[in-house]
Amino acid sequence: MRKQTIVAFTIAMTLAAAAPARAEGPRQLPPQLLGVGIVQKLNAQVPLDLPFVDEDGRTVKLGDYFGKKPVVLSLIYYACPMLCTTSENGLLDAVKQLKFDVGKEFEILTVSFDPNDKPMNATSKKSVYVGLYGRPGAEKAWHFLTGSQESISRLTDAVGFHYNYDETTEQFAHAAGIMVITPEGRVSHYFYGIHYPAGDLRLALVESSNNKIGNPVDAVLLYCSQYNPAVGKYGLVISRVLQLAGLVTILSIGTLVFVLVRAERRVHT
């Protein structure tokens, strides 16, 4: 009975922890997260004429990186204190697991949506990620760009990436995810969150290389919110992730209870 009591208490605590997540909906999001998210715009054309600045300070156009290979697009900002780094690390982990090589089968565009980011910030990020990736040729195919607000807005609008800027904290509220773009510059696939399964990414790259457009996916959004001086810490607001995690935990514990009960009955019979 002692084991059952402990498990029952755990279930009660899990339900109590999951209840706020179930109750929380879009209407209850913090003000800085209203309108923030990633809207799937499959087959949308990325404006290839948009000017940006690469990590070497050269003015380039998005079209310079398209035409032959699919492109993985990662939208972050280089001074992000939390989620952007986690998302970019997830991308790095995924591409390291691929047999495909950055530069041979596909390219990566990491674009800052902060107009205050400079080429020196892009250079620092590139040196870290290209170095950790460690495969030859990646330095010519994993690009880190900065740009004007006009170029940023046109790009983010085209791919459905919506974010807010808080002037008080000078930080951005945004969601995490990456997109796969066809060689022609059309949005082919979306990946949400900070973990991108290598097998799914490989399939997306294969389809995208043939200019095929994928299907809509379930949006499990992970948000990076602003710094709250009253609370004194950064906060992640997870929409549906907590609900799913809580449900999985409850089901797992329920299964454990069932197994323990059956085992105890066998002992007494």
Short précis:
With 269 residues, this protein is an alpha+beta fold.
What does this molecule look like?
The structure is a single chain. The chain is an alpha+beta fold and 269 residues long. The chain folds into two domains: 2-24 and 241-268, no CATH class; 31-224, Glutaredoxin (3-Layer(aba) Sandwich). It has six helices and 13 strands. It has helices at 2-23, 83-97, 119-133, 149-159, 198-209, 241-268; strands at 37-38, 51-53, 59-61, 71-76, 107-112, 142-145, 161-162, 164-166, 171-175, 177-181, 187-192, 222-224, 236-238. It has a five-stranded mixed sheet, with helices on both faces. Strands 8-9-12-13 form a four-stranded antiparallel sheet, with no helix packed on it. Strand 5, helix 3 and strand 6 form a beta-alpha-beta unit. The longest helix has 28 residues, at 241-268. The two termini are 16 Å apart.
Number of domains: 2
Order of helices and strands: HEEEEHEHEHEEEEEHEEH
What's the helical proportion of residues? 25-40%
Q: Which CATH architecture of the largest domain?
A: 3-Layer(aba) Sandwich
Q: Largest sheet, if any?
A: 5 strands, mixed
User: For this structure, what is the CATH homologous superfamily of the largest domain?
Assistant: Glutaredoxin
